[in-house]
Amino acid sequence: MTAVTITVLLFVIGGFIAFAIFLQLKEQARLEKLRKVAMLNNQLRQVRRYLDEMPPQYQPKDMRLWLFSRMIAIYDQLLELQPDATLTRRRGHLAEEMSEFQASKQKRRAKPINDELLILEVKRLFESFKSFLVLSQKEKFINSDVVHRYGKLLNFYHYKVNADYHSYLARKAFLSGQMETAVDMYKEALSQLAPIKESLEAQPIILKIKDLLQEIEEDLALQKAEEEMSKGMESEGEEELDDEWNKFIEDSTFQTKKRF
C-alpha cells in the first residue's frame, strides 16, 4: 500500500470520525435545547400558578409585579431558543396584563380561607415559592435583600392563613347568632398568631381581632345581664301573684267560716 493510499485512507477515516463527532455534538445540542425548553415551560406554568392560585391577601403588589416580570423574562428566553408566533402573542398579552395591574389603584379582593384543605394547598404554594425564590437568586434574577423580605412575609403568611381560617369561622358564627362560638374562634385565631405576635405585620391583625373579641364579649355580658334581670322580674311577678292568691284563699276561708 502506497503512502498516498494510506494518506487518503487516513483523511477518509479522520473525516468520518469528525463527521460522527459533529453529528453527536449536534444531537447533544438539540437535546440540550429541548431540555431547556421543557425547563422554561415548566417555569412558566409554575409562575402562572403563583399568580393565579396564591390568594391576593398573601401576594403584595410588588411581589406580583416581580412574578409578572419573571414570567416575561422566561418568555424571552423561550423565544430565543425557538421563535414562535403563539409565544410572542402570549408574551404580549402578559405584558398588557402586567401594565394594567401596575396602573390599577383598586385593591384586589381577598379570597376567603374557608376550608382546611385550602390551607394545606396555600401552604404548599408558600413552600414552593420559597424554593423558586432561592433558585431565582442563584440565577441572579432577584437580589438577596428582596428574597429575605419575601421570605419573612411568607413565614408570616404561614401563620396568618390559620388565623384567617378561624376568623372566617368566627364571623360566620357571629352572623348566625352563635356568640360563644364566635368568641372561641377569635381566641383560636389569636393563638395561631402567637408565634409571630412580636412581628410588625402581625400587630394590626392582632389588635383588630382583640377589638372584635371585646365587642362580642361585651355584647354577651350585656345579654346575660338582661336575661338575669328578666328572670328576676319574672320571679318577682310570680311571687306577687302567689301572695295575692294566698291572700285570696285566706280571705275566702275566713268569710266561709264566719258565715258558717
From TrEMBL:
Keywords from the named record: Membrane, Transmembrane, Transmembrane helix
Give the transmembrane ranges.
Answer: 6-25
Name of the featured protein: Uncharacterized protein
What is the originating organism of this protein? Marinomonas primoryensis
The upper taxonomy is: Bacteria, Pseudomonadati, Pseudomonadota, Gammaproteobacteria, Oceanospirillales
